[in-house]
Design a protein that fits this description.
Pfam families: EAL, GAF, GGDEF
InterPro entries: Biofilm_reg_signaling, EAL_dom, EAL_sf, GAF, GAF-like_dom_sf, GGDEF_dom, Nucleotide_cyclase, Rev_trsase/Diguanyl_cyclase
Bound molecules: ligand C2E, calcium ion
CATH class of the largest domain: Alpha Beta
Protein name: EAL domain-containing protein
Largest sheet: 8 strands, mixed, barrel
Organism: Phytoactinopolyspora mesophila
CATH architecture of the largest domain: Alpha-Beta Barrel
Radius of gyration: 40 Å
């Protein structure tokens, strides 16, 4: 059967070779539907060791795959198949009466990738263009076919990186082939509203500045010719617009020239023009022009691909808002630097603007965005060009100072940066200034360098934030130890509860007039196997962060109830109430109220014998969820106290809606009460407020006798504190409860009431 490929099969060989090389295939063939025999091929399966039965099995498979893809829609025309030892992939190919496939194969231990599929699709497109060019230029022999095929194969492996180099090489190839004096590629740039010279062959020497042929505005009459050109356009001496000849003369000094211009058409738009200039007169045959059209369409395809690739790359590696490199790009760059030299002298600096959220909340997100852009600009301009500035997220930036390996030097730069960063900025008519924090780590040349370096800078940043606005902290041994400590804590905490390492201590609460114990507060301790008894402050926040607070909380509640039952069973007078601290995570954990109810009945306690303490900040964090739980607890009859009261005054306004019974006045006001008139006013106000809402008050952190006097004057009659008792073990509480006359430990106390 005759197959009308529309050209000499050898013409397409350079393209097949390029395809095979770029996809690492052992063979690339054009196959016709009916017989599965290659019409054009590069490489041979036999050379790759396929023989005998395997070879005929392979032919069958290829035939099946070919008839499959040849019958598909063009946008879904790829199929893969396996034959012993090999994998093959085929793309449908259609041209006039020809139906077949473009087919590549390679050993089956290398599965095809997305990139291979894209290359095969592109090659199939190119193949069709070459077939079309072959069809129209047959009358002029094979030379034009070969040219088109050559260009197609040149363009096959092009990526965004070597795009311009290839363009120049192709222009040279075309220029020499058509024996013109110069040829060029211009693109229409809708943003500049101009036609822009992409490249020319040969490149001119002594180009005037500005180049009259460089950027030509669409308003320029000369652009009228090329801007919306749809069909090839030939200008010969003594023809065409005067201004055009004049322009060529200004740019090149030549005044007698003939020009052929072939538009780069993509759909409805003209993307640019491929131009050929011959000094003196020259005729262009139809076949030549149509070969050029085929090449122009190859260039359009290439352009679309490279643009897509570039924008993909840009989006993948840049932060949209600031145009700075993003996290991925930063990580890759730093990895490369450290791979080359793990001891590269450099410092990583994390910068974080304080409370950017308030800018967003108060001034709106568009001002917030402008602010971030301005910050990015400031960072960029504060460092040297070869330093790296990237945006990691939100208001987090990272800077790599290259060549800086000395802490003092790095800190000096960081402080300079900070000063620049925190100068007031005018954004959208608002003057915004924010403090910032910087954490830095100098590269020490460790093996796990990159992760460790970033981790260290991050720890330093956290420390800087802890110290408050505008601080610079560099990572040091002290922080390193704390880090190890923290990792160890986290690790052991996960098993500590189950292993029975938790303890409850109890701090009594007293009636300041009579000296009786009115309640005990359960405070958790961790009997660490190596470090001894750890106080709550050293691990409770970690428990919250690693989501163990519900587990720990249930243990604490159960143990406190169990201990109360034990006190009640003994012959001594048990405390009236045991108070338990509840964290935010616990409070909103599933069926918290149900759990408390079960405990009460398990140990036979009256609900009012159990008190729950929640901090003011917990209440504010999630007021709706918290409120639902609190209402449930109140229905049970459990008493509720707000802990650390006064530290977040927003809740004053919510007091009315919260079902609470007691306010525990925060230690920070109480401890200075006797000497600080401001704190005295605050405590006084809290007590008045409590009276107005019919709540009782308990003062925390009473450490001296003057405070007791002041509290009594202001009308607060209950308190806890080191003066009366530190938190102690259950056994110690039992002893004190058993000797009521002695537990205040001093005669002055009894004397006061
Ligand atoms: P908190 O609820 O405000 O507990 C009072 C803390 O202040 C206790 O520290 C106690 O030892 C300390 N304190 C009591 N009187 C004085 C005093 O006169 N002077 C000074 N300087 N300190 C005093 P602790 O036991 O380290 O507990 C710290 C925080 O950890 C507690 O603050 C509470 O928020 C939390 N916490 C303790 N136990 C638990 C628990 O079982 N569950 C939960 N979720 N949190 C707990
Ligand atoms: Ca408490
Ligand atoms: Ca407290």
């Amino acid at each position: 059967m005759e197959h009308n490929l529309g050209m000499d099969p050898d013409t397409i060989q350079p393209l097949l070779k390029s395809l095979a090389e770029t996809t690492h295939a052992v063979a690339a063939d054009v196959i016709a539907v009916d017989d599965g025999v290659p019409l054009a091929s590069w490489g041979r399966a036999v050379n790759a060791g396929v023989q005998g039965e395997a070879l005929s099995e392979m032919r069958d498979t290829i035939r099946d795959v070919t008839s499959d893809v040849a019958n598909r829609e063009p946008d879904d025309a790829i199929a893969e198949a396996l034959i012993p030892g090999f994998t093959l992939m085929a793309h449908g190919l259609w041209h006039k009466s020809f139906r077949g496939s473009l087919c590549i194969m390679r050993p089956d231990d290398q599965p095809w990738t997305e990139n291979d599929r894209a290359l095969l699709k592109m090659a199939a497109d190119l193949c069709r263009s070459v077939m079309e060019a072959g069809n129209i230029s047959r009358d002029h022999g094979r030379r034009l076919d070969l040219l088109v095929s050559y260009v197609a194969s040149e363009l096959m492996g092009v990526s965004a990186m070597d795009h311009s180099e290839t363009t120049y090489r192709v222009l040279g190839e075309l220029g020499r082939f058509f024996e013109v004096d110069t040829c060029y590629l211009r693109h229409n740039d809708p943003q500049l509203r101009a036609s822009v010279l992409v490249d020319e062959w040969p490149r001119r020497e002594d180009v005037p500045d500005p180049d009259p042929l460089g950027v030509i505005s669409w308003d320029d009459p000369i652009s009228a010719v090329t801007k919306d050109l749809r069909e090839p356009y030939v200008v010969r001496p003594r023809g065409g617009p005067e201004s055009y000849q004049a322009r060529v003369e200004a740019g090149s000094g030549i005044h007698q020239a003939s020009t052929a211009m072939v538009p780069l058409v993509s759909g409805d738009t003209t993307r640019g023009v491929l131009g050929f200039v011959h000094f003196g007169d020259r005729d262009w045959s139809r076949a030549e022009i149509r070969a050029l059209q085929a090449i122009a369409s190859l260039l359009v395809q290439l352009d679309a691909r490279v643009t897509a690739e570039e924008s993909l790359h840009h989006h993948a590696y840049h932060d949209e808002l600031t145009g700075l490199p993003n996290r991925r790009s930063f990580v890759e760059t730093l990895t490369d630097i450290l791979k080359e030299n793990p001891e590269a002298p450099l410092t990583v600096l994390f910068a974080d603007m304080d409370r950017l959220k308030t800018v967003n909340d108060v001034l709106g997100h568009s001002i917030g965005d402008l602010f971030i852009q301005a910050v990015a600009d400031r960072l960029r301009e504060s460092v040297r060009p070869d330093d790296i500035v990237a945006r990691l997220a939100g208001d987090e930036f990272v800077i790599v100072l290259r060549g800086v390996d000395n802490v003092e030097h790095a800190e000096r730069i960081a402080r300079r940066l900070l000063n620049h960063l925190t100068e007031p900025l005018d954004v959208g008519g608002h003057v915004v200034s924010r403090s910032a924090c910087v954490g830095l780590a100098v590269n020490g040349g460790n093996s796990s360098a990159m992760e460790e370096l970033l981790g260290n800078a991050d720890v330093a940043l956290l420390e800087a934030k802890k110290r408050g606005g505008n601080s610079v902290v560099s990572f040091n041994d002290d922080l390193r130890w704390r880090l190890l400590d923290r990792a160890d804590l986290e690790f052991r905490l996960r098993t500590a509860i189950g292993e029975g390492e938790m303890r409850l201590f109890y701090q009594p609460e007293f009636d300041l007039r009579g000296g009786q114990i009115t309640a005990v507060e359960a405070l958790v301790r961790w009997q660490h196997p190596e470090r001894g008894l750890l106080s709550a402050d050293s691990f409770v926040s970690v428990v919250e962060e690693i989501n163990l607070s519900a587990e720990l909380g249930r243990w604490v509640l159960n143990e406190a109830c169990r201990q109360l039952a034990e006190w009640k069973r003994s012959s001594i007078p048990a405390p009236d109430v045991v108070r338990v601290n509840i964290s935010a995570g616990e409070l909103i954990s599933a069926d918290f109220v149900g759990f408390v109810g079960t405990l009460l009945s398990r140990y036979g306690h009256k609900p009012q014998e159990l008190g729950i303490e929640i901090t003011e900040s917990t209440v504010m964090r999630d007021i709706d969820d918290v409120l639902a739980t609190l209402l449930g607890l109140r229905r049970l009859g459990v008493s509720i106290a707000i802990d650390d009261f006064g530290t977040g005054y927003s809740s004053l306004s919510h007091l009315k809606q919260l079902p609470v019974h007691t306010l525990k006045i925060d230690r920070s006001f109480v401890s200075t009460l006797a000497h600080d008139s401001g704190d005295r006013a605050i405590v006084s106000a809290i007590i008045r407020l409590a009276e107005a809402f019919n709540l009782s008050t308990v003062a925390e952190g009473v450490e001296d006798i003057d405070t007791v006097t002041a509290l009594l004057q202001l009308g607060c009659e209950r308190a806890q504190g080191y003066l009366m008792s530190k938190p102690v073990s259950a056994a110690d509480i039992t002893k004190r409860l058993a000797e009521p006359g002695d537990y205040l430990g001093s005669s002055w106390w009894m004397g006061r009431s």
